[in-house]
Amino acid sequence: MGEQPVLPPPGDSLGEQLRAAIDRLPEGPMRLGEVVAIFGDEGLLLLTALMVLVFLVPVSIPGVSTVFGGAILLVGLSRLRGRPLWLPGKLRERELPGTRVRAALETGLAWARRFERISKPHRLAWLVERRGWLLTGNLAFTSAAALLMAPLGLIPFSNTLPAIALLFYAIGFIQRDGGAVLAGHLAQVATIVYFAFLAMGGTAALSALLG
Question: Which domain holds residue 53?
Answer without folding.
Answer: 14-210
